[in-house]
Design the sequence.
């Protein structure tokens, strides 16, 4: 069993920044690709970004140039730096790895 715990969400004005963190309870999770998804009210969960074990990254078109995903394997932690946030970024953000999911952290961007 692996637990993933997200933190760093909150309320921010448009144009602001937030940094999300996802801490894994087991070191073995670092052997897997990890990712961030988000789900807005009334919408399906969608991929935001993912990072492989060696640092290759992929982003949704809607966040390219604004969000940066990274991981620190020594700390069993993945990050999502979100800059120039927009109201349409409002959602619950989830981290995932190896089929496990965190509980989510709310990000709300006001206009």
Sequence:
């Amino acid at each position: 069993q692996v637990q993933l715990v997200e933190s760093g969400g909150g309320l921010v004005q448009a144009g602001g920044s937030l940094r999300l963190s996802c801490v894994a309870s087991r070191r073995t999770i670092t052997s897997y690709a990890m990712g961030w998804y988000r789900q807005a009210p009334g919408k399906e969960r969608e991929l935001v970004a993912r990072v492989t074990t060696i640092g290759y990254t992929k982003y949704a078109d809607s966040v390219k140039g604004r969000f940066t995903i990274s991981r620190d394997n020594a700390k069993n932690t993945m990050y999502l730096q979100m800059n120039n946030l927009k109201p349409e970024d409002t959602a619950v953000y989830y981290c995932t790895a190896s089929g496990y999911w965190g509980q989510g952290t709310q990000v709300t961007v006001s206009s």
